[in-house]
Design a protein that fits this description.
single chain, Rossmann fold, 2 domains, nine-stranded mixed beta sheet, six-stranded parallel beta sheet, 19 helices, 43% helix, disordered N terminus
């Protein structure tokens, strides 16, 4: 079933719309060159469009070019799908992307209240940018296409498309969390955002908790709307039609990660990493530079583990990779300084000849490097304070060929709902619990490690990225994108909610 939609020849054309294209354009020697983009969305959707074709609409990442030049540079089939650019100015990037999207929505949706910046100019820029995207999509979409819009940058796109007369089915998937009503209501434009989201035909969230937060927000802020359903799909009456609302946990191409991780190149590189660290127990953290990832907390927890468990010293090494991101935003620069200070403090306190406790890398990794680090690591420490899903946790499990690794995972990562039966779940704000989890992972017997990892791998393999796409597209029952399951078929059967009493 997982690849039925991807393989169907009678399917409608799929139009993916996201803030960024899966490639970036850079100017080198006066000529535009393409570079692959990174991030969870590209990781998830790249394999899907590669298999089924379609169109991907988004910003190509530069300002100093006109649309004709950019279109020509993108006029290359990306393994079967077409790229269509939306041009944004430097001011658009500053006010729409860095402003409303990342100084208001990002901290709000991750429930970090002290970082909000409610500048009304940001809201106007957000509406303007969404209209810009709508104009591009409306010019190429036919009524038989299926438009799939992604993430918080484009919550108003569906409404803008409807105003332009687009009648095609439109789905929206939110990759971030959706906050609890008491948090969401702080947004000055809360009703406008909810009403814009209800212009979509299908709304998808990562987890049951995120979906429930959205529905509670609708009930409180738009009490005139009727919300029906208690199972896998809810329906909201809006302007004489029904909007479907469901949860669809995003995933990875499991077979691709596992296959590449077992290649000779990655195997040799993983062996080099282990040998360079003297075959010590490797605890691995890989995070984008972001205050939601909880990097300072896990550094402090690792320091406590070394303090309270002297037997760990010289036997364990923490490798923390931080991928640069949004450094022009002051809070991100301050976070980088905090991380570097903590690394220095731990290494200053515990380093011995021949052993450095924390190895800190501030850079992006090549694909082979990333997979080799996954292969080499004995423990993955993935502890965001809030996260929509976190695909790094799933990637690590897929790359653990020997099934002897241990995943320590934040209960506030969306992935925890699916992976709770194999991972060691922690509250990232509870440094004592984190410290104990690190020690438990270090001392765990191989038999238990293998049983836990096999359980994790089975879940991720069965519910891979193709399963995610099928679940979402099949839920859009009027999209005619293949055979449709019943609503029960779309359910996340074993995605138990982590909060007692909340189903």
């Amino acid at each position: 079933m997982a690849r039925a939609v991807a393989a169907s020849k009678a399917q409608k054309r799929l139009i993916i719309v996201s803030n960024r294209l899966p490639v970036s354009l850079v100017r080198e020697n006066g000529k535009l060159e393409m570079r692959p983009s990174s991030g969870g969305l590209v990781t998830a959707l790249g394999p899907v469009l590669k298999g089924r074709g379609g169109v991907w609409v988004g910003w190509p990442g530069l300002h100093d070019a006109d649309v004709t030049e950019v279109t020509a540079a993108l006029d290359v089939k990306q393994s079967g799908y077409t790229l269509v650019p939306v041009m944004l100015s430097r001011e658009d990037e500053e006010r729409f992307y860095f402003g409303f999207s990342n100084r208001i929505v990002w901290p709000l949706f991750h429930e970090i209240p002290f970082l909000y910046d409610y500048d009304p100019d940001f809201w106007e820029a957000y509406l303007s940018a969404n209209r810009r995207f709508a104009e591009v999509v409306a010019a190429l979409a036919g009524e038989d296409d299926y438009i799939w819009v992604h993430d918080y940058h484009l919550m108003n796109l569906g409404q803008a498309l409807r105003k332009l007369g687009v009648t095609a089915s439109i789905g929206f998937f939110l990759h971030t969390p959706f906050p609890a009503p008491d948090i969401f209501k702080k947004l000055p434009w809360r009703k406008q955002v909810l009403e814009a989201l209800l212009e979509y035909d299908l709304l998808g969230f990562q987890t049951l908790r995120h979906r429930r937060n959205f529905l509670q927000g609708v009930r409180r802020l738009l009490p005139e709307k009727e919300v029906r359903g208690r199972g896998t799909m809810n329906l909201i009456e809006h302007d004489g039609r029904e909007v479907r609302v469901g949860s669809f946990p995003i995933s990875i191409d499991y077979e691709s990660f596992a296959g590449q991780a077992s290649s000779p190149e990655v195997t040799d590189l993983a062996l080099q990493y282990r040998q360079s660290l003297s075959e010590r127990c490797i605890v691995l953290g890989i995070d984008r530079l972001d205050y939601t990832k909880g990097i300072p907390y896990k550094l402090r927890a690792f320091g406590l583990a070394l303090s309270h468990h002297p037997d760990l010293r010289r036997r364990i090494t923490f490798v923390q990779v931080v991928v640069p991101s949004r450094e022009s935003i002051p809070q991100y620069h301050e976070l980088k300084m905090t991380i570097e200070r903590l690394v220095g403090e731990i290494n200053g306190a515990y380093t011995e000849p021949g052993w450095v406790p924390v190895h800190y890398l501030f850079r992006s990794l090549k694909r082979a490097e990333l997979l080799a680090m996954y292969r080499a690591a004995d423990v993955a420490l993935i502890t965001p304070v809030e996260d929509g899903m976190n695909l790094v946790a799933k990637e690590y499990c897929a790359c653990d060929i020997d099934a002897t690794g241990t995943l320590i995972l934040s209960e506030f990562a969306g992935a925890a709902a699916q992976l709770q039966r194999g991972a060691l779940l922690v509250n990232p704000c509870d440094l004592k619990q984190m410290e104990e989890a690190i020690y438990a992972a270090y001392t765990m017997e191989v038999v238990e490690k293998r049983a836990r990892m096999r359980r994790l791998q089975r879940t991720i393999r069965e519910q891979d990225v193709y399963w995610w796409v099928d679940s979402f597209l099949r839920a859009g029952a009027d999209a005619d994108l293949g055979q449709y399951p019943t609503l029960e078929d779309v359910a996340i059967g074993h995605e138990d909610d982590l909060w007692s009493g909340e189903g």
